[in-house]
Structure prediction request, 251 residues.
Amino acid sequence: MKAVKNIIPTLFTCLGLISGCISIVYSLQREMIVGAGVFIIIAAIFDFLDGFFARILNSVSDIGKQLDSLADVISFGVAPSMIVYRLIMFSLVETGLSVDRPGFNNALILYSAFIIVVFSALRLAKFNIDSRQKNYFIGLPTPASALLIASIGINSDIYFLPFEAKENVYNIYSLIFLIGLIIVICILLVSNVRMFSLKFKKLSFKDNGIRYLFLVISALIIILFGLRGLAPVIILYILLSLINNWFMKME
Prediction:
């Protein structure tokens, strides 16, 4: 019976890892960035389910924690980095970049996307050795950063697919935006900012006001915009966490 209890969370972890790998494959294909984003979302669902069943089945184990982190590096580190890499490539292609010979400077810009992998791994390593992060997170959780990038990938078909020159100078997928995105995400991943978790110990509004507020607004955003609304949801999560931190310091 104990073996079965351990298998269920592990199965979901492995399914999440496979979803991350599929996302990477989709990123490598010319017109499948949207699919890459969708599979990161699927990986996030499996990541939630493995933790959920591990808790309710009381099957939390050291090997499960390590496997979960290793899977997260792929699904929430490498996979979103590949989406950013491809979006940077699309932006450079529109400016006349030769993909075969990008040159040193453009290569540096392209490969800067993989800094996200490094900071995601650092975030996960910090989480594994930090006993404080039980009721809240310190720094942006890797699934949240990955979902933000996934949503950006899902919205990318509006701008990049098929490969056509765009004259819109306000294109949010400009190099400035993408490099800025990398910097902000990496800083948030290893920051000391407290981010609230969605774990409910009690159901009272007094103890969970910020969680209920986040869930209600997020539900409205998703209903209105579907998966394309995930980016605003993650931004809302970050802003509410920052506001919550400010009020905690004021107390």
